[in-house]
C-alpha cells in the first residue's frame, strides 16, 4: 500500500496556490477558483516537500519519470533528484527542427514510466502525454497529480492508475 500524503502539505499547497476570482482555464472553461501552480513550484520549501510526497507515491518497478512540457517539468526534476530516476519531457507536438521528437530526454521503449502533472482539471494534457509515451513504446505505470481538481477521473476512465497529493472535490468550473 502506498503511503498517505501528509495533511499539512495538502493544506500548505492549497493555501499557497488557491486564488478566487474569474478565471479562464486552459480547457477554456471559466472558474471562480484557480490553482496557481507557480506559487508552489517556485517556493523551495514547498517544492521540496511536494517532491518528497510525489516520490513516496511512486510504486515499485518504475524505471523513468516524465512530465508534460510546461510547469510540471519543475516538479518532475525535483522528484528525479529524490528518487534518482531519469526523466523525459513530453511536448504537445513534435518539434519541427532538430530531433523532431515529441518526447525529449530519457524514455526508451520498454521503460516503465511515472507521469507527473502539476494541476489537472480535465486530464486532457496528461492523457496526451501518456499516449505519446506509449506511442514511443513506454508503459505508463502510474500518473501522479500534485493537485487533482477533477482530471483524475478522466484519466482513470481512460484506464490509467492515478494518485494525487491533493484532491479538490468542490465544483468551481462551468462550460
Question: Could you explain the architecture of this structure?
Answer:
This protein is an alpha/beta fold and 175 residues long. It has a single domain, classed as Rossmann fold (3-Layer(aba) Sandwich), CATH 3.40.50. Helix content is 34%, strand content 30%. It is built from six helices and nine strands. It has helices spanning 7-17, 38-41, 44-57, 72-83, 124-135, 151-157; strands spanning 18-24, 30-35, 64-68, 87-90, 103-105, 112-120, 139-148, 162-167, 173-174. It has a six-stranded mixed β-sheet, with helices on both faces. Strands 1-2-9 form a three-stranded antiparallel β-sheet. Helix 4 (72-83) links the parallel strand 3 and strand 4. Helix 3 (44-57) packs across helix 4 (72-83). The radius of gyration is 15 Å and the shape is globular.
Quick structural summary:
The protein is α/β, with parallel strands linked by helices. It contains six helices and nine strands; from the N terminus they run αββααβαβββαβαββ. β6, α5 and β7 (139-148) form a beta-alpha-beta unit.
> Rg from C-alpha positions?
15 Å
Number of domains: 1
What sort of overall outline do the alpha carbons produce when their principal axes are compared? globular
Q: Got a strand count?
A: 9
* Computed structural class: alpha/beta
CATH top-level class = Alpha Beta
- Taken in chain order, the helices and strands follow as HEEHHEHEEEHEHEE
- The helix content, as a percent range, equals 25-40%
Widest sheet: strand ordering: 5-4-3-6-7-8
Q: What name does the CATH topology carry?
A: Rossmann fold
Estimated share of beta-strand residues: 25-35%
Amino acid at each position: 500500500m502506498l503511503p498517505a500524503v501528509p495533511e499539512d502539505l495538502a493544506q500548505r499547497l492549497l493555501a499557497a496556490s488557491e486564488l478566487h476570482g474569474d478565471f479562464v482555464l486552459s480547457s477554456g472553461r471559466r472558474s471562480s477558483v484557480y490553482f496557481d501552480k507557480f506559487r508552489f513550484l517556485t517556493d523551495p520549501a514547498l517544492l521540496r516537500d511536494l517532491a518528497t510526497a510525489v516520490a513516496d507515491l511512486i510504486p515499485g518497478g518504475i524505471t523513468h519519470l516524465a512530465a508534460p512540457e510546461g510547469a510540471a517539468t519543475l516538479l518532475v526534476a525535483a522528484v528525479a533528484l529524490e528518487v534518482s530516476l531519469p526523466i523525459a519531457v513530453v511536448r504537445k507536438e513534435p518539434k519541427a527542427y532538430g530531433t523532431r521528437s515529441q518526447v525529449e530526454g530519457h524514455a526508451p521503449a520498454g521503460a516503465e514510466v511515472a507521469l507527473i502533472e502539476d494541476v489537472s482539471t480535465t486530464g486532457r494534457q496528461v492523457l496526451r502525454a501518456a499516449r505519446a509515451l506509449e506511442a514511443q513504446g513506454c508503459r505508463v505505470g502510474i500518473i501522479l497529480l500534485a493537485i487533482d481538481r477533477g482530471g483524475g477521473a478522466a484519466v482513470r476512465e481512460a484506464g490509467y492508475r492515478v494518485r494525487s497529493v491533493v484532491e479538490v472535490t468542490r465544483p468551481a468550473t462551468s462550460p
